[in-house]
Amino acid sequence: MTTPGPEPTPDPEPTPASKGVPAPKKDPMKSFRGIMAGTLILEVIVVALALPVVAKLSGGVGTGTGYLVLGLIVALIATCALLKRPWAVYVILAIHVVMVASWFALTALGGIGVVFSLVWVYLLWLRRDVAKRMAEGRLPSQQQG
């Protein structure tokens, strides 16, 4: 006489690894946050280089335009600390809208905003592409042997 064993438990939700898609060895989104932080710091340097232009053409750093540039510098540095948050990209985009809109206050700052807005559009496209490839298992770190 055999005693029946415990009934098998149902399998949990299938994970990408159980579907045949191995997880990447390194988190590509963590690396991407590093790229975003580096881009923000580079942008801080370029925007800070607009301060002499403000001092020469806009009546000094103590004017509204000077405070705008200083505020953008502080906002860009503070955003580096927020990159792990899911809404950080929206903050970055809002900063760039302000920067492009500042074209009327200082043309050089608006030009910087346009250039870096294009850089961020490209970076966000790359992030979407990496996420898609990761879901499909096509990243080099997910390839078998």
TrEMBL record:
> What protein is this chain from?
Uncharacterized protein DUF4233
Source taxon at top rank: Bacteria
- What InterPro entries does this protein's entry cite? DUF4233
- Tell me where the transmembrane regions lie: 35-54, 66-83, 90-123
Stretches the record annotates as Disordered? 1-26
Q: Where is the composition biased (Pro residues)?
A: 1-15
Pfam families, per this entry? DUF4233
Q: Which keywords annotate this record?
A: Membrane, Transmembrane, Transmembrane helix
